[in-house]
Each structure stands twice: as structure tokens, then as C-alpha cells.
Design brief:
- The structure holds 2 protein chains of 2 kinds.
- By secondary structure, chain A is α+β, with helices and mostly antiparallel strands.
- Chain A folds into 2 domains: 161 residues, Uridine Diphospho-n-acetylenolpyruvylglucosamine Reductase, domain 3, CATH 3.30.465.10; 96 residues, 2-Layer Sandwich (Enolase-like, domain 1).
- In chain A, α2 links the parallel β2 and β3.
- By secondary structure, chain B is α+β, with helices and mostly antiparallel strands.
- Helix content of chain B is 28%, strand content 23%.
- Chain B contains 20 helices and 28 strands.
- The longest helix of chain B is centred in the C-terminal third of the chain and has 27 residues.
- Classes of the chains: A alpha+beta, B alpha+beta.
- Chains A and B meet through α11 of A and α20 of B.
Chain lengths: 265, 787
């Protein structure tokens, strides 16, 4: 760590301006950036803290849409009666991220901007067909996640909120990495205004992805049985100490069935 | 039994400070003028060092000095010694390569220290270390033991085929003959997984040198301060004992990994004199992963010969034991004298042969880790016994009962050197069968099957040798030190007591258990007894804590010193009460003249010893302080039965431990709560080895499981509530009758878990699962069985 300048942004425009230089980073909950800096894996020149921007926090439900401010913490999403009522799978997913300390610091905006291939929120965004709102534009989740730790965000672009359409049914199932307890395989399924969706995190060699064959099958019949016989391509899977690609591919099928069973109730 | 005496679950004295954040750990200690060290470590597993340029680092902000192996060599600093010597089968001594405290000539594992930077702050030291230019010529790494013994790349030029020693116990020809006669032979291949100890407190050292007196002080996270003083003072730095003080204050867990003398301790102590200021080093967690000595790591092929009734006729074992890149303090003894000698287990197997080949690899040294050799032995035995039963269609309990050493056969001489003094294996087995409700298992299995789960039941009937060790035996087996323990009991004038023990507590609750012992023995209040340990300037001598030895050896030493106090007090009381010594009785803290109401409280006798106005000066010195050195006559032999019940999810391979029962014979129990806690901890580590933990190096010697992101530690939600109880048979050769409890959990549990997993998967055609039985490994075993 060679040191960095700390800025507390007063509003979104201020944050965007200060974080637009090449080596500057916006700081949300810091649950990834801070350990990365400590381990010498990241060396930003400037950290622009978003914590003081009140507009970025909070949850609102408007008709068929749940809107979550980018700086809303996982614990707040998990504990929100509004989210629990509208999209219980989303509240449950947030309640299963990391541990209590992480949930009390980590934010939805920070999580999706980081786009860790084993994070939960990318699966929720993709699996529910969310819209990511930034200071410049609105980006469909389908266009937002661009591979490992890569997103559609431009330099200086700040996520302000995420809008989730309320599905008819949805569920998230996670098979945790035994060591880190990040998702080794996490599958978010939903059925509703954004269509029938199956989003998989943790497993893909290129990060979160939608499983088209499963979506087609579920479009016909939203049941675990509909997924029987669908094979997941081993070649698209990540591989590590805990799960080689063949095991991951197998788990995607199993966990998807469990998610569908849970969503179908 | 008094309120705080032997057999009472007294709450732990030490918890008051630990739970309120007032523990005093090495990193809590700071000395005036303190500086900080940072070690530059090799990123590659094997390389020649062409040169190390420290000039830029020396000029960096705050840097006081930078040292390399060349500086140590110039100062004639010795290598890190090994405390145990073994031989090849032909009697040749083991290959014992030099282990420089900072690498010289070559680096031999990722994490091997190349240089140390001493600076005003930790941050400055770390930043400066990045400026050191180490010119390394990378060499191929030797990681896999089977490849290592084929020769090729050598970790040490002097160790042909990377072999440290090739050792054997037992008469091979006799054992082979037993196999020729056998009706059935079961064989098994086992990889006993490599484990990283992961104490909560990382290793820390703080060294100081006083130029005026020439005195050195090293504060360090060790389980045995006197052993460090001996090894480092005599063999590395040539500092005599009276000029070297080692302090091991509160230590946050050791599990064996803090027994050993580590290079950082010597480098800091040496450098403190060079720099002229105290130097502190605190391991980062990633340093702990790659530099703390690892545990286990055996590759074994074993065969069991049986007659048609299932009686064991002979056991043949061939093991490759990983030593890592250098010999850690006690590494050679672990796979031999703490493993091969345990291969009789609780069984009457008449003939045993074991061949142990110790192998160098480009990995961090491997040494004792909770159980140390004995978990490897119990795992091997309990797995092969279970497999034999399955192959021969004999019930798992029946095959064990058929081969148990009967309770009336003690003392029992095994064919592998040890003589067991006491035990009752049927008692622990039958208690465990009942506690685990084995009768109800079939019903529970059916219920689990309805939920799509495969339920299995696994047993382990194990023994271990602990209370290490009779010095004469240890010496004959290659130990370069004695293994007694010492105690001083100092009674103060008002009757309160300070006990100085050579045992060291790093989670074992000595301050409570030993105080209970002394309170009971002297009849003084529990709160009036303090236990002092961990400081060579206070403690007369000590061999420290490992091998479940504290109570059986250290406690016995305390008891013997306390008995001397009672005897001296009797003489004082006899004089004051004007009675003959033979008529003085001591009980409940009071000396009485037999048959009279004449009495003196223990405190009054203590006062008389220090205020000797009326005192038998002609026959007795004033004061009331006694010491004892106790060298045990034999090992102690705790044993017992663990029963594990698991559910396996056949879709994912996830194993869920649903019930775990441990019935252990640890001899007399001083504090049942503490014993239960020790078993809980040990069992959890054993489940960790069985299902989760695994240190993995890739073929280049990079540690893939170098953080908690990849190394799976067992957590509270991974394990069920345990059913823990004890069945006592007393140790026959110490007066307390105690055997030791520190390791039983880790020794007995792992095979019970894997036997349960294999039992669960048997209906799918699976006969074995590797350690650890992680979800992926279990799923793969099912795939391979075609299930």
C-alpha cells in the first residue's frame, strides 16, 4: 500500500467528478476494496467515499417495482419488510451474503460494481431482470455484467440505485464454497414481468450468466422436473480446488432444480 | 471432594482476563525503543540464490538494518537444530541438512526467509523489503513424495532420493509368514491429508538485548520456553542460559505448531544485539499459512491379515512421511515413535511390521500437530479394520470386540515396543453404543432415506500414547532432550501458594486445573493458589506442553512437590504441638495429633516456617518451598470409542455430521468441564481433517490453500452438539491416575467420521473416500462407483 487520498463526496456529481481520474475509485461499503488494498492487490490513488450521500440510501416500493439505493446495506435489504413482502427471495439472498459484519457494511451498489464472479447480487440482478440506474443512464442487468470484475460502468459513472421488477415467483439457492462460503454455485430463478430467468453465479468461468436452456424449459413448465436432463456445459465452468468444472456443471443442475422447487413452492 | 477440589467443574480462572480482553499476549508487549522486523520471503519453492542486493532497502525511510543469510554466516550463527535423531534400517544416521535461519545458497519452500528488514515502523520495514533485489535462479520443485523418492531434483544435495531416513520396526519375515497363513487379507491406500494448524494467535516474537548486562530477552509464542532457550541458546546463538530469558506469556493456541524453534526467533534475538534496540515481528496470517510447521501428510499402503474368524494375525504398513524442506524440531519422531509404535491400537494383533520413509520436499516443514502421529495410526487402523469387517461380512462392533486387548490383560506388551498399563476398551465401547443409540440407527437411516439422504454410522476404537515421556525411553529412541517436568510449590507466610510449573498453558486451563490439584492436596483455598508458567527467569526448568503431557507429567510433578510441603509441615507441626511426627495427621488443611484435639491449620504452619520463633532449627530449615522433577515411568494410554453418524446428500456430496458421540478414558478427571471442552475442540479438529481441511501445493510448490478463502476451517455451524462422556481406568504408574486429554478428540474422531461416510455410501458401491471427504471428493467417489 503506497497510500491514497480520501475524499468524502458531498453529492453524486461530486463523487463522479472526484472518481473520474484513472486511479481513483469510489468507496461504498469497502468490503472488497479495503482488504484488497491491505493485501496489496489494489493501489488506488484516491478513494471517494459515497457514505455521506443521503440520496443513495433507502428502499422504496412503487407498484410493481422495488427500488434500492446503491448505498443500501445488505442487512437493510434483508431486514426490509417492503422487500420481504415484494420479493422475498431478494431479501433472503441479501440475508445470506457473507457474515453479519459484511452485511452491516457492504452495499448493493458496491457489490454489483465490483462484479465478483462469486457474489450473490449479480445473480439477483440478472435473475430478476433488474435495471441499474447511474448518474448518466439506465442499464439493463443483461447489459451490465461484462465478465470477471468487469461491468458496463464508465470511469466516473456512479450507480445510484437498482430497480427490480416484482416477479410472480422467485428463489435463490446457494451452494457455498466450503472455505470462503462465497457462492460456489448460486442460482437465482424468477418468473414474472421480466420473463423466466435463471441466473447463475459462482460457477461460470466468465462470471454471472443466464442459463438459456433452463429458461426455455421453465418457460414451458416452471417446475424442477422441467430441468431434468438439461446438461450444463463443462467448458463454460470455472475450476478450482473445491470444484473442478465437471462438478460445478453438475451442481448448477442440482442447485437450479432446488431453486425452482423453492420458487414454485 | 471440596468445592474446588479434584472432580469439580470449577469455572476457569483464566477466563476472567481472556473474556474481558485483558489477556497479555506477545503482541500486547511493547518495549521502549522498539523497532519492527519484516521478513522478505521466497515466492518460489526452489531456487539458487545468486545474490541479494539490499542497498536500496537500507536507504529507505526508517530502516535501521537489513540482514541476509550471508550476515548470519559471517557471524557464525548456527542453523536451526532438530531435536530428534533417527537412523536408517542399517543404522546409518538420518540425513540432517543444514537449516539456516535466513536462506543461504538456496531457498527451498515458498515462504523461506531471504532477508529481514528492521525499521522504526512495521510499515516502513515492509515497504523497504519490497526494494530488496533477490537474484534467484529458479529450479524445478519437488512436491509429490512418490516422485521425490525417484530422485531427479533434490531438495538437499546430500539427501539421495530426497530421503531423510528409511526406518522400520518389527520383524518383517515373521509378519510376512503370518500373511502367508492368512485366510483373508485386507489392504488399503491412504493419503493422510496435510493440515495447517491455524492457531487464532499468529506467531509473534519480540527480542531485546541489554548491552550493560549482556542479557537477552525473547518474548515469543511458544509452548515450551525452556526448550526454545536450549535449542536457540545452545545450538544457534551460543548464548548461555543465564544470559538468555525466554518469556511465553498468554499464547492463543498452539496445537503443536508452537512447540518448535523457528528461525524468526533466532534472527530477532541476534539482530536485537546488532541493532541495539528491541525488535518485534508479528506474523501476518498469510505468513502463518506458509511458514508455521504443517501437520500429518502421509502416504500409506497397509495390509491386515486375518483368520477366517476375523482375528487379526498381522499388520504390514509402508508409509511415506513428508518432512517438508527442512527438519523441524521434532519432525523425525512423529511418523516413527509416535505413529508406528501405535499400530497395535487396542487390538491383540501379534505381529506388526512398519516401514517409514521420511521424505524431503519443497514445502514448509511438517511436524507435530494435535495428536502428532497417533491420529495417522488410529486413522490407518480404524479404516482398515472397518474395511476388513465389510469385506468379510463381520459386524463392525463384533470385529473390534473379537480383537480387543481384554481388560484383564494389563500390563499388555504390544509387538511394537509399547507396554500399555491400563484400559478397558469394552467399557468405552459399550458406553458409546448406548450413548449413540446405535440400536435406533436403522430407524433413523430409513427416515433419512425418505429425505433423500444416505445415512451412515462409523466407529473408531482408538488408543494413544501420551504424557510424553520417560526420558530413558525417549533417549533410546533418539530424543536429544529429557522429557520430565518440574514444579516448585512456594507457600507464602500467610498460607497462600504460588506454583511454578514447567508446563505451559496455551488454552489448556492449567491455572484452574493445577490450582484445583494444589487446593485439594494442601487444603488451601482455590483462590489462594496461583499458577505461574511461561518465563524461564521465574520457572526453574520445564519441558513444556505437548503430547497431552501437562497433567500426567507436569501435574504429577506439582503433586510431588506439594507432598513434600505436607511432609515438611508435619515436622513443623510435630515440633510445635510437641508430638512425634508419626502421630501427626494431615487432612483438609489441618495438622492434628492423632487421637487428640490438638491441631494447627496449614496457614499457621506456614507462618511458623517463616516466623520461626518456635521452630526445630537443629533439624529443619525455615521457609516452606519445595521442588520436584518428575520423570514418568511409562507413557500414559488414553483410549476410547467415538461413534459418528452422518447424512450424505448424494446429489451434491455434502456430508452432514448429525450425531457425534465420544466416550473417552482419560484416567482420573480433575475438572470434567475442562475435559469436555478439550474433547469438543479435538473432535472438531478431527472432523475438520475428515471433511474440510486440506493444505494443497501445486506442482511448482505454490501453496494453493494459502488463506481462509481456500483452506476450509471447521466452524461452529459445521458440527452438531456432541455427546461426550468419560469412563475411567486409572493410570497405573502416576499417583494421580491421570492419562491426558488434549489430543484424544483429534485422534479418535477422524476415522469415525470417514467410516460413517463409507458406511453411508456402501449401498452405492463405494468402498473408500479420500481425506478430506469434501463435497467434491464424495461426489467423485459416487461417480467412480457408478452411482
Amino acid at each position: 500500500m503506497s497510500g491514497f487520498n480520501y475524499h468524502k463526496a458531498s453529492d453524486v456529481a461530486d463523487a463522479a467528478g472526484k472518481s473520474s481520474s484513472e486511479d481513483a475509485l469510489p468507496l461504498a461499503g469497502g468490503m472488497t476494496i479495503l482488504p484488497s488494498i491491505k493485501l496489496g492487490l489494489s493501489d488506488p490513488s484516491d478513494l471517494v467515499d459515497l457514505a455521506g450521500i443521503g440520496d443513495l440510501k433507502g428502499i422504496s416500493v412503487d407498484g410493481d417495482t422495488v427500488t434500492i439505493g446503491a448505498m443500501t446495506r445488505h442487512a437493510d435489504v434483508a431486514g426490509s419488510a417492503d422487500v420481504q413482502n415484494a420479493i422475498p427471495a431478494l431479501a433472503a439472498m441479501a440475508g445470506g451474503i457473507g457474515d453479519a459484519q459484511v452485511r452491516n457494511r457492504g452495499t448493493i451498489g458496491g457489490s454489483i460494481a465490483n462484479n465478483d464472479p462469486a457474489a450473490d447480487y449479480p445473480a439477483a440482478c440478472l435473475g430478476l431482470g433488474a435495471t441499474i440506474v447511474t448518474n448518466n443512464r439506465e442499464i439493463a442487468a443483461d447489459d451490465f455484467f461484462k465478465g470477471l470484475f468487469e461491468t458496463a460502468l464508465d470511469s466516473g459513472e456512479i450507480i445510484t440505485a437498482v430497480r427490480f421488477p416484482v416477479p410472480a415467483r422467485a428463489a435463490y439457492e446457494k451452494f457455498p464454497n466450503p472455505a470462503s462460503r462465497y457462492a460456489l454455485v448460486g442460482v437465482f430463478v424468477s418468473d414474472g414481468p421480466a420473463g423466466t430467468r435463471v441466473a447463475v453465479t459462482g460457477a461460470g468461468a466468465n462470471g454471472v450468466f443466464r442459463q438459456g436452456d433452463m429458461e426455455s424449459a421453465l418457460g414451458g413448465s416452471f417446475s424442477a422436473d422441467a430441468l431434468e436432463g438439461i446438461s450444463v456445459s463443462e467448458g463454460d465452468m470455472a475450476s478450482d480446488l473445491h470444484a473442478a468444472s465437471d462438478y460445478r456443471a453438475h451442481l448448477v443442475g442440482i442447485i437450479a432444480k432446488r431453486a425452482v422447487a423453492a420458487a414454485a413452492g | 471432594m471440596t468445592e474446588h477440589g479434584i472432580g469439580v467443574s470449577v469455572k476457569r480462572k483464566e477466563d476472567r482476563r481472556f473474556l474481558t480482553g485483558n489477556g497479555n499476549y506477545t503482541d500486547d508487549i511493547n518495549r521502549p525503543g522498539q523497532t519492527y522486523a519484516y521478513f522478505l520471503r521466497s515466492q518460489v519453492a526452489h531456487a539458487e540464490i545468486n545474490g541479494v542486493d539490499t542497498s536500496a532497502a537500507e536507504q529507505a525511510d526508517g530502516v535501521l538494518a537489513v540482514f541476509t543469510g550471508a550476515d548470519l554466516a559471517a557471524d557464525e550463527v548456527g542453523g536451526i537444530p532438530c531435536g530428534w535423531g533417527l537412523t536408517f534400517q542399517n543404522g546409518d544416521p538420518m540425513i540432517e541438512p543444514a537449516h539456516p535461519a535466513l536462506a543461504q545458497g538456496k531457498v527451498r519452500h515458498v515462504g523461506d526467509a531471504i532477508a529481514v528488514v528492521v525499521a522504526e515502523t512495521r510499515k516502513q520495514a515492509k515497504a523497504a523489503a519490497q526494494l530488496i533485489e533477490a537474484d534467484l535462479n529458479q529450479l524445478p520443485a519437488v512436491v509429490d513424495m512418490k516422485k521425490a523418492i525417484e530422485g531427479g531434483t533434490l531438495v538437499h544435495d546430500e539427501a539421495a532420493e530426497n530421503t531423510c531416513y528409511d526406518w522400520a520396526i518389527g520383524e518383517k519375515a515373521d509378519v510376512d509368514a503370518a500373511f502367508d497363513e492368512a485366510d483373508h487379507v485386507t489392504s488399503i491406500d491412504i493419503v493422510n491429508n496435510r493440515l495447517i494448524p491455524n492457531a487464532i494467535e499468529p506467531r509473534v516474537a519480540l527480542a531485546e538485548y541489554e548491552a550493560a548486562s549482556g542479557d537477552y530477552t525473547l518474548y515469543t509464542t511458544t509452548q515450551n520456553p525452556h526448550v526454545i532457550r536450549l535449542l536457540m541458546g545452545a545450538f544457534v546463538l551460543q548464548i548461555p542460559e543465564h544470559k538468555l530469558k525466554i518469556v511465553a506469556p498468554d499464547v492463543g493456541g498452539g496445537f503443536g505448531s508452537k512447540i518448535f524453534h523457528y528461525a524468526e526467533e533466532a534472527v530477532l534475538t541476534w539482530a536485537a544485539a546488532k541493532v541495539g534496540r528491541p525488535i518485534k515481528w508479528t506474523a501476518e496470517r498469510s505468513e502463518s499459512f506458509m511458514t508455521d510447521a504443517h501437520g500429518r501428510d502421509h502416504v500409506t499402503h497397509a495390509e491386515l491379515a486375518l483368520d477366517k474368524e476375523g482375528k487379526f494375525l498381522g499388520l504390514r504398513v509402508r508409509t511415506l512421511a513428508n518432512m517438508g524442506s527442512y527438519l523441524s524440531s521434532f519432525a523425525p519422531a512423529i511418523p516413527t515413535y509416535l505413529h508406528a509404535t501405535l499400530l497395535a491400537g487396542v487390538y491383540t494383533t501379534p505381529l506388526i511390521y512398519a516401514n517409514i520413509r521420511a521424505v524431503f520436499t519443497n514445502t514448509v516443514p511438517v511436524d507435530a500437530y494435535r495428536g502428532a502421529g497417533r491420529p495417522e495410526a488410529s486413522y490407518l487402523l480404524e479404516r482398515i479394520v472397518s474395511k476388513a469387517a465389510r469385506e468379510m461380512g463381520i459386524d463392525q462392533v463384533e470385529i473390534r470386540r473379537k480383537n480387543f486387548i481384554p481388560s484383564d490383560a494389563f500390563p499388555y506388551q504390544t509387538p511394537v515396543a509399547l507396554q500399555y498399563d491400563s484400559g478397558d476398551y469394552e467399557a468405552t465401547l459399550s458406553a458409546a453404543l448406548e450413548a449413540a443409540d446405535v440400536d435406533g440407527f436403522a430407524e433413523r437411516k430409513e427416515a433419512a432415506a425418505r429425505d433423500g439422504k444416505l445415512r451412515g454410522l462409523g466407529y473408531s476404537t482408538y488408543i494413544e500414547a501420551c504424557g510424553v515421556a520417560p526420558s530413558a525411553v525417549a533417549g533410546a529412541l533418539g530424543a536429544r532432550a529429557g522429557l520430565y517436568e518440574s514444579a516448585v510449590v512456594r507457600v507464602h507466610p500467610t498460607g497462600s501458594v504460588t506454583v511454578f510449573t514447567g508446563s505451559h498453558s496455551h488454552g489448556q486451563s492449567h491455572e484452574t486445573t493445577f490450582a484445583q490439584l494444589v487446593s485439594e492436596q494442601l487444603g488451601v483455598d482455590f483462590e489462594a493458589v496461583d499458577i505461574v508458567h511461561g518465563d524461564t527467569s521465574k520457572i526453574q526448568f520445564g519441558m513444556g506442553t505437548y503430547g497431552s503431557r501437562s497433567l500426567a507429567v507436569g501435574g504429577e510433578a506439582i503433586l510431588r512437590a506439594a507432598n513434600k510441603i505436607v511432609d515438611k509441615g508435619r515436622k513443623i507441626a510435630a515440633h510445635i504441638l510437641e508430638a512425634s511426627e508419626a502421630d501427626i495427621e494431615f487432612a483438609d488443611g489441618s495438622y492434628t495429633v492423632k487421637g487428640t484435639d490438638k491441631a494447627m491449620a496449614f496457614g499457621e504452619v506456614a507462618l511458623a516456617a517463616y516466623v520461626p520463633h518456635n521452630y526445630p532449627h537443629e533439624t529443619l530449615e525455615p521457609g516452606l518451598e519445595e521442588s520436584a522433577f518428575y520423570d514418568p515411568l511409562n507413557f500414559t494410554f488414553p483410549g476410547g470409542c467415538h461413534v459418528c453418524e452422518v447424512d450424505v446428500d448424494p446429489d451434491t456430496g455434502v456430508v452432514d455430521v448429525v450425531n457425534f458421540t465420544a466416550v473417552d478414558d482419560v484416567g482420573r478427571v480433575i475438572n470434567p468441564m475442562i475435559v469436555e471442552g478439550q474433547v469438543h475442540g479435538g473432535v472438531t479438529q478431527g472432523i475438520g481433517q475428515a471433511l474440510m481441511e486440506n493444505a494443497v501445493y501445486d506442482e511448482n510448490g505454490q501453496l494453493l490453500s494459502g488463506s481462509y478463502m481456500d483452506y476450509t476451517m471447521p466452524r461452529a455451524d459445521d458440527v452438531p452438539s456432541y455427546h461426550v462422556s468419560t469412563e475411567e481406568t486409572l493410570c497405573a504408574h502416576n499417583s494421580l491416575g491421570v492419562k491426558g486429554v488434549g489430543e484424544v478428540g483429534a485422534i479418535g474422531s477422524t476415522p469415525a467420521v470417514i467410516n460413517a461416510v463409507v458406511d453411508a455410501l456402501a449401498e452405492k458401491g463405494v468402498t473408500d473416500v479420500p481425506l478430506p471427504a469434501s463435497p467434491q471428493n464424495v461426489w467423485r467417489a459416487l461417480q467412480e462407483a457408478g452411482a
